[in-house]
Amino acid sequence: MELTFAAQKQLDKFFLDMDFTVAGDRIGIFGPSGCGKSTLVGLIAGLHKPDGGHILINGQPVFDSGKKLDIPAEHRRIGMVFQRPHLFPHLSVKANLLYGYKRCERDQRKITLKNLVDVLQIGDLLNRGVNNLSGGEKQRVAIGRAVLSNPRMLIMDEPLSALDDSLKFQIIPFLKKSCEAFAIPYLFISHSLTEMRIMAERVLNMTDGRVAGLMTAEELARSLMGKGPAPYINLLKLKRARRLDGMSAYNFGDTQLLISGDSREEALVELPSTDIILFKRHPEATSARNLLHCRVSEIFEAGTRVGIELACGKDKLVAVIVKESVQDLQIGKGVEIFAAIKATAFRPLG
Asked: Is the pLDDT of residue 6 over 90?
């Protein structure tokens, strides 16, 4: 998917003026509350009309003030998933799902109810009323309704912000699986850096109705290092768990990571960069259960500190240390180093 946006919109005292082209199937729109993210996607979806400019999706204009072109929202074939599910309370789950499908042209119906039900695992919900669903179930149905409208693009506007962490990380796999299974490109809007790193590849960073930058999700995370009290967080996707000494052991690089807590076949965990302790030589003793032999692959500024990218076999970690420690440890690109990590430093997501 390629999205070209060069348009303006005045809303009371807020003025949005953006000019960008972004391509990809997993595009994120990131920025703090009030920066104009929802206004931007409303203009793309046709929910609001720009004051001027043009908007193209895959080279096809959906709005062009110079040509007096403004394709109505219902004909843009853009599915929407909002912060709140907005399901029809008088309809069953099945009827909610089929709402957009019935309004889709027959030759565009590539996704069927059966296929969708299998992907979202909601077969046992079809005959229920939506008022008898949990928050997570409602959001899965909202995702299904948008996908079953057979859109050429899906816009997800803060779809996880109303959910607590346990539900949030249950819903994320369904969001990604639905779009991957049916080859639907999407715009994912959020002010959460963690959500952005999980859901997006390319990210449009916004501030005050303007483009602040266009980058990968990892570049965004690193650009924010040192700009707030929170440290850089490593996001690790781990597989092949087994129990070892009362902990979960996961494959990582050419070794393993020991993590406190229950084992899962696959796990997504957070590891703060400040919880990685570096040694120039193999320490004689340490209380940390993880001691990784790594190579420094990159060094970069992180505010008043320094980010150290570590290559641990085929996997990577980022540690953050003070500048004085870089000199004390004689850290440079290509240098071999040991990283110690406590088993309790990891936080499972979901």
From this structure: yes
